[in-house]
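ESCALATION

Customer reports they have been waiting on this structure for their group meeting. Please prioritize. Original submission:
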Amino acid sequence: MFLENCKKAGSIEVICGSMFSGKTEELIRRMKRAVFANQKVAIYKPAIDVRYSESEVVSHDSHKIASTPISDPKEMLAALNEGIDVLGVDEAQFFDSSIIETVQELANNGIRVIIAGLDTDFLGKPFGPMPSLMAIAEDVLKVHAVCVKCGSPAQHSHRLSENSDLVVLGEKNIYEPLCRHCYNAAIAREAELTGKLDFPDEDKQ
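Update from on-call: job pushed to the front of the queue and completed.
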């Protein structure tokens, strides 16, 4: 969905998928198209995401774009007074639920909001505010990585470490993309090795 010529048509677009699926790459591509269309843009990311850069959104393929790190989604409302046409959000799963109301307000005031984030966590469960963001969006694109075990489209971010915290920043040394079959097989092997039938409940982490 590309709305470069609709400067006052507020909307919400969500790009979701597993790790290594190209979410950030697609976000950067859409933002750069908006810049080419002479639109005023702003892009935000969670302040905790410092894997590649503290002040830029960077894809796994090393494409990057300047961004503003924030801790509170409501900080993005400053865009309403800055004449922003297109606003991008990376790693939206790390924000709290206030991002839902925030992007609604931005879109209702004529800003095109483009959001990228993981739709599921390492447990295979819906991640943070992403389900709600997908529900209120005009357009949702689900992208897939390639399963490192069998080459099928991958939708799961399988964690290789034993850390059970919900949020663990990392790259290929900690996560691998797997399809449903290979993910379930990996979880079954881990359960057999550890003697656990399941991962800890999220509310106990």
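Sent to customer with the following note: The chain has one domain: 11-204.
Escalation resolved.
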